[in-house]
Amino acid sequence: xxxxxxxxxxxxxxxxxxxxxxxxxxxxxxxxxxxxxxxxxxxxxxxxxxxxxxxxxxxxxxxxxxxxxxxxxxxxxxxxxxxxxxxxxxxxxxxxxxxxxxxxxxxxxxxxxxxxxxxxxxxxxxxxxxxxxxxxxxxxxxxxxxxxxxxxxxxxxxxxxxxxxxxxxxxxxxxxxxxxxxxxxxxxxxxxxxxxxxxxxxxxxxxxxxxxxxxxxxxxxxxxxxxxxxxxxxxxxxxxxxxxxxxxxxxxxxxxxxxxxxxxxxxxxxxxxxxxxxxxxxxxxxxxxxxxxxxxxxxxxxxxxxxxxxxxxxxxxxxxxxxxxxxxxxxxxxxxxxxxxxxxxxxxxxxxxxxxxxxxxxxxxxxxxxxxxxxxxxxxxxxxxxxxxxxxxxxxxxxxxxxxxxxxxxxxxxxxxxxxxxxxxxxxxxxxxxxxxxxxxxxxxxxxxxxxxxxxxxxxxxxxxxxxxxxxxxxxxxxxxxxxxxxxxxxxxxxxxxxx
Length: 500
Description:
Blueprint: H1 2-17, H2 50-66, H3 74-88, E1 99-103, E2 110-113, E3 117-121, H4 122-127, H5 131-146, H6 149-156, H7 162-174, H8 179-186, H9 194-218, H10 225-236, H11 248-252, H12 257-268, H13 280-291, H14 296-304, H15 312-324, H16 328-335, H17 345-359, H18 361-374, H19 379-392, H20 395-411, H21 416-428, H22 432-445, H23 449-459, H24 466-480, H25 485-496
Parallel strand pairs: 1-3
Antiparallel strand pairs: 2-3
Helix pairs in contact: 1-2, 1-7, 3-5, 5-9, 5-10, 9-12, 10-12, 13-15, 14-15, 15-16, 16-17, 17-18, 17-19, 18-19, 19-20, 20-21, 21-22, 22-23, 23-24
């Protein structure tokens, strides 16, 4: 039940972004507040304000994080961040704030929500064959954000029933691509006129295509990337049976032969002197393949079935899969043979150090140290190094892990995942009060200020020194100002449940 609730919240934004509408005979509308959402306002408000857009975007990101759907691996995060901002810098609004994320979902989908939050499902990432294809999808979603299509949709819709949109699309996402379940959901009488929605969004889709292709070209990526990916999907999922359920991306981004042809024609008119695709794409893709395997042995089996002489990225993926299956020596043997380029060296060397941590910790820590100095305390180095240090169980290593975790959070003060790492490092170093403080700050950054205050108030009962008490009291006051009535009532209701 808990997972369904998060998916329905995510679905609201997806539905708004893709312009689903409701019929006049739908059940009476309940308020957004009833569902713990920010109020959208009336149709007379015309569009969401930038503040409302940001609030919705943060809510979606935080709830996806809460239910462990967000890919937090530093390699994948770093790659999608840099690709996204490479494109955003060449969009029609380069000053727009963006947040790029990958979701652990095998379905083929990507979506943008108000506030510049763009999410790519792992299934879509893995289906792409080139960086330009993946970038084509991202540039399309970037255009949805820069043109504020979600807000424009709300302004033009005659009626918005948030709970119905929530239930419909949320259930589709939660069905995990189960065709029969999706059909049942669609046929469940929620009163959504899908064809009207598709017609309504066609102009937005063409506008996003046009702007996205221009963004690809300006970013020195292949302008055919978007048309190539869309054409591939159209060919793969071409069906004549109306009962057949298309992948989510085709349901929310309606494709046609005409639209793909127009994208190709538009790309032909744009000349790119040099297409510069990063070799990091293939490495990030193979790492994601291992991370999203249903179990570690499945990821390993995939590479064992490939020809022995795979690409460098496939060899990297194979080594990572071996490490995930507790075979560090075999992983090292493969990593030593991988030819590296300047861009991929950090990924390969960091994985080598991680594998060494299971075989020769001292040698691994020297390697991590050299990499951290060379790459300015990069998370791709620090995160596995911290985990390797904590694994030894030695007090000296626990203290070093804590120091590195503090450096990590200092360099990335808005990333809640790194404060979760700091909390564990503090606990391992015997600093339980600081561990709770770090965990409370992680809860704050994840949008759960009520929980953060509760944790810190419990700390006040501890034997604190003057500075600790002053610091904690100050944080309590800071977080209390951010608690919404919605959050308060939700947490109180949760505490009254029998198993709360």
